[in-house]
UniProtKB/TrEMBL annotation:
Domain annotation ATPase dynein-related AAA: ranges: 64-185
Protein's name in the database: Cobaltochelatase
GO molecular function annotation: ATP binding; ATP hydrolysis activity
Signal peptide start and end residues: none
Annotated source species: Vibrio caribbeanicus ATCC BAA-2122
Length: 326
């Protein structure tokens, strides 16, 4: 493959595209492909995290994005890739992903009517040889044997020694490596992320750019809700969106204070808004989107958060009070 033919050469206006200025030039591929994520025109970019992701794409920095659930870590990378026309592959490192899935294995195949044993490259080696942004999702949930496979790619030259094939593989010049995690490899201090592990600090030290994506400001979150639930884009709908975000922020404050053990993510607020449109009832949608997965002893306090934001309206709180009493 001629790598010069697969290089991003189309300069883009970062301020116009992402809403802020940078000190380095950002270029996009001139054409798109089926591996490029679909652009979400309403996506809200966080400037600091977007800058870190752009550094990953433009300067080949190994970039790790950490943050609480529902903040849009993976989608942030994908939406930057979409605007750069950069092919993107996302792998969720759940407990079922093995070393063989990433590296490959010997398989029996038919060639000219005969069965032969041939090495079939895994996802990691396939991506390594292409102009692809590989996103390792749930990085802190990966199995130890899988994580050590990745470690060699985090070195300065990024070469990978394939013992199975007996050769050293040099990554494509436009191969990029990203990862997302909830805990930053120091253990689950929140008690919310079952299945995560403490990461090897030697490996964590090899990530050259680490950014944190937490929940956006109330104004930005309202904008996201309105974009995902367009039916709310009117005066009364915008007021409702502000009340919903205010409720979510109270749950986050209560979580930080240790009053409750669960919080509403932006993803949950969007689900709540979409369920209101489906069900036609604010409180029923709130119950089905969030309250039903809360601890029974905490529901009274969460109901109180709701009432504070919705002015204690009996019409809005009655279904919740029934749920608490049941």
């Amino acid at each position: 493959m001629n790598q010069n033919l697969t290089a991003p050469q189309q300069p883009i206006n970062v301020e116009q595209t992402f809403g802020f200025k940078t000190n380095f030039q950002v270029c996009a591929f001139e054409s798109t492909s089926e591996a490029v994520p679909v652009i979400d025109p309403d996506y809200q970019f966080d400037p600091d995290v977007t800058l870190a992701i752009l550094a990953g794409f433009c300067a080949n920095r190994r970039t790790l994005i950490q943050g609480l659930h529902g903040t849009g870590k993976s989608s942030h990378i994908e939406q930057v890739a979409a605007r750069l026309n950069w092919p993107c592959m996302r792998i969720n490192l759940d407990g079922q992903i093995s070393r063989l899935d990433l590296i490959g294995k010997e398989s029996i195949v038919l060639e000219q009517g005969h069965q032969v044993t041939k090495f079939q490259e895994g996802l990691l080696l396939q991506c390594l040889q292409k102009p692809v942004a590989l996103v390792l999702d749930e990085y802190d949930a990966g199995r130890p044997d899988v994580m050590f496979v990745i470690q060699q790619l985090l070195e300065q030259n990024g070469q990978y020694t394939s013992l199975e094939q007996g050769k050293v593989m040099t990554p494509h010049r436009n191969f990029r490596l990203f990862a997302t995690c909830n805990t930053l490899g120091l253990g689950d201090s929140y008690g919310m992320y079952s299945g995560t592990h403490v990461l090897n600090q030697s490996q964590l030290d090899r990530w050259t750019v680490i950014a944190t994506l937490n929940y956006l400001s109330a104004q930005h979150e309202v904008s996201i809700v309105l974009a995902k639930a367009p039916y709310l884009n009117n005066p009364s709908g915008r007021r409702l969106a502000r009340q919903m975000v205010a409720t979510a922020q109270l749950t986050r404050s209560g979580f930080e204070a240790g009053d409750i053990s669960i919080l509403m993510s932006p993803r949950t607020v969007i689900t709540w808004a979409q369920n209101i449109d489906l069900l036609g009832d604010i409180a029923s949608a709130f119950r089905l989107s969030f309250l039903n997965r809360c601890d029974g002893e905490e529901r009274a306090l969460i109901s109180e958060y709701y009432q504070r934001c919705f002015d204690g309206s009996p019409e809005a709180t009655l279904p919740i009070q029934k749920e608490l009493a049941s």
